[in-house]
Amino acid sequence: MTSNKSTISAPAPVASSNPPRPITMSIDIGGSGLKAMLLDAEGKPVSERQRVVTPAVPTPEAVLAALDELRALMPAFDRVSAGFPGIVKRGTTYGAFNLHPLWAEGFPLQAEIEKRWKKPTRVGNDADVAGYGAIRGEGVELVLTLGTGMGGALFTNGHLVPGLEIGHHIWRKKGMTYEDHLGRRGLDRFGKKEWNKLLKEAIASTEALFNWDHLYLGGGNTKKIDFDPGPKVTIVSNQSGILGGVVLWRDQA
Fold first, then answer.
1. What is the CATH number of the domain that holds 247?
2. How far does CA 173 lie from the centroid of its chain?
3. Is 5 helix (H, G, I), strand (E, B) or coil?
4. What is the pLDDT of residues 38-86, one digit of tens each?
5. Is the residue at 2 inside a domain?
6. I need a labelling partner for 52 at 20 to 30 A (CA). Which of 27, 66, 89, 140 fits?
């Protein structure tokens, strides 16, 4: 990336023998990896980030088994937040476009984690959680996550507008979505140079559609961006999908 890009760096883990409680195990479920970090009551990291590989056949049971492995790597905690890459309503999944069709059948992920781990749990869409970790809470803010798929979250004065699935909206070509162009499939299909051109178009398109005051770009593929997106766009740390976990509790209290 060029040095004039607007970026946010994730804070380093805080060394504290007595962090403010409750301690949240914040999880980011992705198409290629499952990541977690412990956060204190203020949302500050109090552990290193841990990661395990997403199962090759990511059924609910396979992913839950991998989450058990991830939990075993973490110190003690009081509650759980999880960002899930698909449609989530009241802790139940109704679609996971880059995992497995079984997730679309109304899988009670929140209740299942609570049952397995005996910890209070909240599950939300991964882009929503990433947005909580990125936004400033001022005006209309849009968050786009560029990874295996493409997620989106819209906020007004810090409050989530629920249910946005911009990644699956038809864009540019009949039958092709934003995710088809800007997710991992699009990057592989079009190549880095064309993918960057498409991302520039998407920035302009979403600004016209949502009239956002600020746009945040997150996810692992932001490292492929080779242009300056301008002062109204911020490239955020890939850890924003974890750092928003505490706000998932606060916003839905």
1. 3.30.420.40
2. 26
3. coil
4. 999 999 999 999 999 999 999 999 999 999 999 999 999 999 999 999 9
5. no
6. 89
| CA distance readout (Å), 30 to 81, 99, 103, 136 | 14, 8, 13, 24
Bridge partners of 7? 235
User: Exposure of 218 by Cβ count < 10 A (0-12 exposed, 13-18 middle, 19+ buried)?
Assistant: buried
CA separation for the pair 123, 87 (Å, rounded): 11
Residue 117 and residue 163 share a domain: no
* Integer Rg of the chain from CA: 17
- Domain, as residue range, for 96: 24-129+242-251
Place of tokens 């802790």: 91
pTM of this structure: 0.86
Sheet-wide strand order for 214-218: 159-161, 150-156, 140-146, 214-218, 233-235
In sequence order, the β-bridge partners of residue 143 are 153, 216
Strands 233-235 and 214-218: parallel
Cβ–Cβ under 8 Å, residues 152 and 167: yes
Quote the tokens at residue 129: 């959680």
Q: Please report where in the chains the tokens 């088994």 appear, as a residue.
A: 65
CB 188 within 8 A of CB 137: no
Distance CA 65, CA 87 (A): 21
Residue 222 included in any domain: yes
Domains held by the chain: number: 2
